[in-house]
Design goal:
Number of domains: 2
CATH topology of the largest domain: Rossmann fold
Order of helices and strands: EHEEHEHHEHEEHEEEHEEHEHH
Shape: globular
Structural class: alpha/beta
Distance between the termini: 54 Å
Radius of gyration: 20 Å
Low-confidence stretches: 1-7
CATH superfamily of the largest domain: NAD(P)-binding Rossmann-like Domain
Largest sheet: 7 strands, parallel
Number of helices: 10
CATH architecture of the largest domain: 3-Layer(aba) Sandwich
C-alpha cells in the first residue's frame, strides 16, 4: 500500500460540510498548502469558491457519497458535515442520527473499500464533538466515558465509536473531539454569534437589549481557525488517533456576554441582558472543559487565541457588518 505520513505532500482532499464555518476555513487552509480540494454541498445550496471542486450530495444518500469517493479517490476525507444545531436535533432526532451518525460510517466504509481496491492509503478525519461527553465530569479527556444528553451528542458518539472500529480494520481514521470554537462565520442561531451581534447592535444604537437563555452554562471556547490547524495536524499525524481539541479553560455564557459587551465599549452588561426560558435547552451539560494535554504532547498543538480576543474579533466584525446590513431578520 502506498502511504504518505510525515512530511506529507499535498494531494486530493474531500471535505464534507465545506460551506460551514469549519469547512470554509479548512478549504482555504488546504488550498493554501497546495491541496486539490473537493467539497460536498447540499443540493440546491448555492456555494462556490475559486479553485474548489464542488460536488452536490445529501449526506443521507449513502449511494451518492460512495460514488463521489470512488470518482475522486481522495488522499484524505475530512468529514465536517452534519446537523450542527443541538437544538435542531431535538426536533429532528432521526434525521440527526442519519446525517450526523450514519453518514460518517458510509464514508468510512467506502474509503476502506476504495483503499483495498486501489492499494492507496485513504485517510479519514471525523469532526467529533464534546457533546459526546454530555453530563460527564469536567475536565473531559479522550478517556472520559460518553454520557450524551442530546440527540446530537448521541449521533456524534455513534460516529466517534465507528472511527475506532474502522481504524482496527486498516483505515487510517482519526477524530478530533472538538469543544466550542467560534468565529465571524458562526450563524446567528449560535449563542456566541447572537451575543456578539447583540452587543454590536446595542453599541451602534440599533437595539436596546439582548435576550438569552441559560447564562450559567460553562463552555470551553476557542477560535475556529486555530482548531482547523488542529484538524490538519490530526489528519496528517504519523499514527491515526483520537484527540481532544480544546483550550482547557471554561467560561460561562455570561462571561462571553461580558467580554463581548466590553469589546463593544459597553459596561454594566446587566442593563442590556434579558433571559427567556424559550432559549433554554431541553437538556444541557452543566460544564464542558476539555483536557488538551494529549494533542499538545503528541502533535504540539495548543490554542493560541485568548477567550477575550475571540469575543472581540467577532464584535469588531459584527459592528461593521450591521452598519451595512442592519438587524432585520435577526432574533436578538
Amino acid at each position: 500500500m502506498t502511504t504518505r505520513t510525515e512530511g506529507r505532500q499535498p494531494g486530493v482532499a474531500l471535505v464534507t460540510g465545506i460551506s460551514g464555518q469549519d469547512g470554509s476555513y479548512l478549504a482555504e487552509a488546504l488550498a493554501q498548502r497546495g491541496w486539490s480540494v473537493h467539497g460536498l454541498v447540499r443540493p440546491g445550496h448555492e456555494w462556490g469558491r475559486a479553485g474548489i471542486n464542488v460536488h452536490f450530495a445529501d449526506l443521507a444518500d449513502a449511494g451518492r457519497l460512495e460514488a463521489i469517493v470512488q470518482e475522486i479517490v481522495p488522499d484524505v476525507i475530512y468529514n465536517l458535515g452534519g446537523i450542527s444545531s443541538v437544538g435542531y436535533s431535538w426536533s429532528e432526532p432521526y434525521t440527526t442520527a442519519v446525517v450526523t451518525g450514519a453518514a460518517p460510517i458510509a464514508l468510512m466504509d467506502q474509503a476502506l473499500r476504495t483503499q483495498r481496491a486501489t492499494g492507496r492509503e485513504i485517510r479519514f478525519f471525523q469532526a467529533s464533538s464534546a457533546e459526546i461527553f454530555g453530563a460527564a465530569k469536567a475536565p473531559q479527556s479522550e478517556a472520559t466515558p460518553f454520557r450524551p444528553v442530546t440527540p446530537y451528542g448521541v449521533a456524534k458518539a455513534m460516529a466517534h465509536s465507528a472511527v475506532g472500529t474502522f481504524r482496527s480494520q486498516g483505515l487510517a481514521a482519526s477524530s478530533a473531539i472538538l469543544f466550542n470554537h467560534e468565529s465571524v462565520l458562526r450563524p446567528p442561531n449560535f449563542v456566541t454569534r447572537k451575543i456578539t451581534l447583540g452587543a454590536a447592535a446595542i453599541s451602534i444604537g440599533l437595539r436596546e437589549t439582548l435576550t438569552l437563555g441559560n447564562l450559567n452554562a460553562l463552555r470551553d471556547f476557542g477560535w475556529a481557525q486555530d482548531y482547523v490547524e488542529a484538524m490538519i495536524a490530526i489528519a496528517e499525524a504519523p499514527e491515526p488517533d483520537d484527540f481532544v481539541v480544546a483550550t482547557g479553560i471554561s467560561h460561562s455564557i455570561r462571561d462571553f456576554a461580558e467580554a463581548a459587551f466590553t469589546a463593544a465599549g459597553l459596561d454594566r452588561v446587566d442593563n442590556y441582558l434579558r433571559t427567556d426560558p424559550r432559549f433554554v435547552r431541553a437538556a444541557e451539560a452543566p460544564t464542558m472543559r476539555g483536557d488538551p494535554s494529549k494533542i499538545a504532547r503528541v502533535l504540539g498543538w495548543k490554542a493560541s487565541t485568548k477567550f477575550e480576543e475571540v469575543a472581540a474579533r467577532m464584535v469588531e466584525h459584527d459592528i461593521e457588518w450591521l452598519k451595512t446590513h442592519g438587524t432585520e431578520g435577526l432574533d436578538l
